[in-house]
């Protein structure tokens, strides 16, 4: 027997069907995460959805896996260059958040917020 779909508590509708239409589902090509997302459960979820990922394995998880011997499984794949890019993106976003308007998002409309982020990016670019 299959699982029942989740139902929105407020109006009793399925969350993927706003206003009676099916919403488009998208998934990322690749996910980069830090060590907090390195659990077996997270990796299994990503594999099931066929999402490639770059997540470092902490020392304690590596030691526990190796202590189990042949039953510990193979090591998780890890690409250092992709992980370095993730760090660059994270530092850039944090630099953009030094602008108060970007960090708090006072703007209600998306196109105005996009302009605010663009101005903050230009200021960051000119500063460096």
Care to describe what's here?
By secondary structure, the chain is mainly α. It has a domain at 25-79. It is 45% helix and 5% strand. The chain has five helices and two strands; from the N terminus they run βαβαααα. A two-stranded parallel ribbon has the order 1-2. The longest helix has 18 residues, at 110-127. The model has no long low-confidence stretch (mean pLDDT 82).
Task: Please tag this protein with its features.
single chain; 128 residues; 5 helices; 45% helix; Transposase
* Radius of gyration of CA atoms, rounded to a whole number: 21 Å
Strand content is under 5%
SSE class: mainly alpha
Q: Please trace the helix and strand order, writing H or E for each element.
A: EHEHHHH
How many β-strand runs? Answer: 2
Catalogue the unreliable spans.
none
User: What's the multimeric state?
Assistant: single chain
- How confident is the prediction overall: mean pLDDT? 82
Q: What percentage of residues falls in helices of 4 or more residues?
A: 40-55%
Largest sheet: 2 strands, parallel
Kindly report the spatial arrangement of strands forming the biggest sheet. Answer: 1-2
Apparent shape: elongated
Distance between the termini: 59 Å
Biased composition (Basic residues): 40-52
Region (Disordered): 1-78
Protein name: Transposase
């Amino acid at each position: 027997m299959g699982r029942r779909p989740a139902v929105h508590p407020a109006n009793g509708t399925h969350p993927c069907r706003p206003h009676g239409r099916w919403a488009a589902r998208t998934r990322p090509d690749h996910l980069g995460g830090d060590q907090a997302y390195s659990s077996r459960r997270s990796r299994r979820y990503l594999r099931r959805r066929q999402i490639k990922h770059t997540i470092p394995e902490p020392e304690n998880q590596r030691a526990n896996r190796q202590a189990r011997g042949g039953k510990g499984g193979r090591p998780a794949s890890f690409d250092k260059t992709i992980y370095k890019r993730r760090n660059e993106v994270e530092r850039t976003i944090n630099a953009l958040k030094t602008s108060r308007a970007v960090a708090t998002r006072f703007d209600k409309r998306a196109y105005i917020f996009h302009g605010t982020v663009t101005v903050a990016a230009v200021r960051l670019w000119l500063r460096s």
